[in-house]
Specification:
It is built from 22 helices and five strands. It is mainly α. It has two domains: about 280 residues, no CATH class; about 130 residues. The chain starts with a helix and ends in a 5-residue tail after the last strand.
């Protein structure tokens, strides 16, 4: 119930507002459009599946609050399904002990960020659920034949009751499993574009497992989803070109501004994202680690401690990945490798991308810790001569105590993480700042409803503001390329916590000076809501310096409301 009762500011991420706005358009029968933007262009940036699922909330309740509740319910179901799928993968594919898989699930389920993305209307959990399910079904289709396996009888199938490991496996069952795996991977792609990693991993894993026919079938099923979206996207982009606002709204309609423009920029993105991913992985294992990115970016003893913990976590995850690797696990390892490769080259803070695969990350870390402590126990037993003489006796008797000790140590570490997570989750999910911001957003929307019909508002959380006021709205400022803002040439280790470097701040201020007025005129803005939060400081300063274009009206919801004067001089 925490995800439903804890307050949140819907729209502060912007993406959640986009999902809700496009879902309303689908529910109203107007197609996959930005209902909140002037001209209502087709949405050609985010794939359609998650908004289509959200549209059910609009249809059932007919209001924004009903859609938000429906989205949270959808996320809760998807998060539960994702945990179940990850448990199946860890038990049946990685073959880790039951207690270890359960510990990874409990640690994940009590993490504050896991709950935060249930209450936020974001697609992470839906994507994770489809990806985990697709990988589990693909593993069932690629299971080894017992005739070629010495431990066939001891190796259970992925799904009890379906014998995918028989030498006389019904090819129809194999074809069904391959097709279902491809469909689920395709659904992951239609939830988030990075789901392409799932489509490739499922098909390639089947191919490398010598299931060529199944690989072709899975590739065709998943590829149909990818091709269908790309074809529709191209067609919709052609239709959008007829709208006068489309060039000014390019950030909301495509990923073009996110692509690194040259090799030095790409190298800088990979370097910073690698650092952020290592620290972020450490932070994601426990809610208490949320402060780690800031620690790791400031010189001093704390930096050494933070990086020591981060690298140790990375090492344990790598050891766990090696310990759990086998042919039937090829899909999972391939998916994670492709997934993180795409994350590293994408100019965005990678911490958010860890959410869908968090159960597997925690499971790999625990498996690595289990293996590491077991080896230490074996070495200690050998050095202290606690085992009987003789290689056979030594090998037989040293393994059992070390495994037992390593299991107890791993369980103790998992229990500590769960206790930390439970305490951290309740504190983070009830942040007083979030409660205050939610109240201000509601007050702002209530006052802006009185603006004249046809008004176009520029504001933060613009998409949700449009849904609450029934006016059109655009983001407060035109977007700066991420490679110029978050990955500016002067970005260093000091920026791995997401802080914008001086060159990034300068690029943001330059964009405001040169583009803001043209952006407002192109999108038909009539009113501007100024905020001193984040990048709004530079924007507010610009508005105050140009009274010939911005006429102050009043204070609404704790923010200043200005009328924009096109062509003012």
């Amino acid at each position: 119930m925490m995800a439903f009762s804890a307050p949140t500011v819907v729209g502060r991420i912007e993406d959640d507002g986009v999902y809700l706005s496009t879902a309303k358009s689908l529910a109203d029968g107007r197609g996959y459009r930005h209902a909140s933007l002037p001209g209502e262009p087709y949405q050609t940036k985010y794939p359609v599946l998650y908004p289509a699922m959200l549209s059910l909330g609009w249809r059932a309740g007919g209001s924004l609050d009903a859609a938000i509740f429906g989205g949270r319910l959808l996320n809760a179901v998807a998060a539960t399904a994702g945990l179940a799928g990850a448990y199946v993968l860890m038990r049946r594919v990685w073959r880790v002990p039951r207690w270890l898989a359960a510990s990874a699930i409990v640690i994940t389920a009590t993490h504050a960020d896991w709950w935060d993305f249930i209450r936020q209307i974001m697609s992470e959990h839906v994507f994770g659920a489809f990806a985990m399910a697709g990988l589990a079904v693909a593993a069932a289709a690629s299971k080894e034949t017992p005739a070629h396996s010495a431990d066939a009888e001891a190796s259970p199938g992925i799904f009890p009751g379906i014998s995918t490991a028989s030498a006389t496996t019904d090819r129809r069952i194999l074809c069904v499993l391959a097709a279902v795996a491809g469909v689920l991977a395709g659904a992951a792609y239609l939830s988030r574009s990075i789901g392409l990693a799932a489509v490739v991993a499922v098909a390639t894993g089947l191919l490398l497992s010598r299931r060529r026919g199944a690989a072709i079938l899975a590739a065709a099923a998943g590829g149909a989803f990818v091709a269908g979206w790309l074809i529709w996207q191209s067609s919709a982009e052609n239709l959008n070109r007829s709208l006068p606002q489309v060039s000014a709204l390019a950030y909301d309609l495509s990923y073009e501004s996110w692509i690194p423009e040259d090799a030095p920029t790409l190298f800088r993105v990979i370097f910073l994202n690698t650092s952020r991913l290592i620290v972020g992985m450490f932070a994601m294992v426990s809610s208490a680690g949320r402060w780690l990115p800031s620690m790791a970016s400031t010189p001093g003893v704390l930096t050494v401690l933070a990086w020591t913990g981060a690298l140790a976590t990375l090492g344990l995850a790598g050891l766990g990945a090696a310990a759990t690797y086998r042919r039937s696990a090829l899909h999972v390892h391939l998916f994670l490798g492709l997934y993180f490769a795409l994350v590293l080259v994408w100019p965005f803070d990678p911490a958010r991308f860890l959410i869908p695969v968090l159960p597997l990350i925690v499971g790999a870390v625990l498996a690595g810790l289990h293996r590491f402590v077991a080896r230490l126990g074996a070495i200690a037993s050998s050095r202290l001569k606690l085992t009987p003489a003789g290689p056979a006796a030594s090998g037989a008797s040293s393994s059992a105590p070390s495994v037992g000790f390593s299991g107890a140590a791993t369980l103790l570490a998992a229990s500590v993480l769960v206790l930390i997570n439970v305490g951290g989750a309740s504190r983070i999910l009830n942040d007083p700042y979030v409660q205050r911001e939610a109240a201000q957003q509601a007050a702002l929307a209530a006052e802006l409803r009185s603006l004249p019909p046809g008004s176009v508002i520029a504001s933060t959380a613009s998409h949700v503001l449009a849904l609450r006021t029934e006016h059109k709205a655009v983001p407060l400022v035109p977007a700066v390329r991420s490679t110029h803002l978050l990955y500016a040439p002067d970005a260093r280790f000091s920026n791995i916590d997401g802080a914008i470097s001086p060159a990034g701040i300068a690029a943001h201020e330059c964009m405001i000076e040169q583009e803001l007025t043209r952006y407002y005129e192109a999108t038909g803005v009539t009113h501007v809501v100024c905020s001193d939060v984040g990048g709004g400081v530079a924007h507010h300063a610009y508005v105050r310096r140009h009274p010939e274009r911005f006429q102050r009206l009043r204070t609404v919801g704790g923010r200043e409301l200005f009328a924009f004067i096109p062509g003012g001089s």
